[in-house]
Amino acid sequence: MKLVYRMGIALLMAGGLFAFYACSGNSGDGEQAAESTDTSESMQQDSNRGTASATFGEQTVTVNYGRPKMEGRDMLGQATEGMVWRMGMNDATTISTSADMAFGDIVIPAGDYSLFMKKAGDSWELIFNSQTGQWGTQHDAALDVATVPMMTTENDESVDTFTIEVSAADETSGTLAAKWGTAIVSCDFNIGG
């Protein structure tokens, strides 16, 4: 009887050691699995990013942004007065311009900025913010450089994935447009101030 008891204890201890070893992360497989999960999440976030760019002579304007899907939501249509939106998803939307951009009398110096949109009446305003590299919901209004009025129009076809476009009309003027659902929110600008 004592022999059976001792064998049972030995088996329990061996099983406990095996479980401890397997859960401790000392096996290459556990570390590999953790690395591949991190890579997978990073790849998914990257696949949800978009870039819009246009060249104006030797100058370039580039926007990097997250691309949420509608999935039954109407973010632009449901926005309330004064609501500030990250203009995408995940990391803050950024704009990089190698030349000054003029929106009417408002001049944005060449550089890098975060972009946000603020609901203003029946339309939106585009906010240029000097902070970059932050999460999209972290908007510090004290760092706003300028606010530019935008026009809202309707698109004939619904756009399921949020899309930003930067287009050049010629070497000195262009349009920045955000499309989601049937809404197109845009503003025209000139290059070089």
The percent of residues in helical segments reads 10-25%
Radius of gyration (Å): 26 Å
Number of strands: 11
Number of helices: 3
Distance between the termini: 94 Å
Shape, please?
Answer: globular
Give the percentage of residues in beta strands: over 45%
Structural class: alpha+beta
Low-confidence stretches: 9-44
Task: Tally the structural domains.
Answer: 2
Protein described:
The protein is an alpha+beta fold and 193 residues long. The chain has 2 domains: 2-42; 48-191, no CATH class. The protein has 3 helices and 11 strands. Strands 1, 2, 3, 4, 7, 8 and 9 form a 7-stranded antiparallel sheet that branches. Strand 10 and strand 11 (173-191) form a beta hairpin. The protein is globular. It starts with a helix and ends with a strand. Residues 9-44 have low confidence and may be disordered.
Write a brief caption for the model.
The chain is of the alpha+beta class and 193 residues long.
Task: Considering the chains and any ligands shown, give keywords for the structure.
2 domains, 24% helix, 193 residues, 4-stranded antiparallel beta sheet, 7-stranded antiparallel beta sheet, alpha+beta
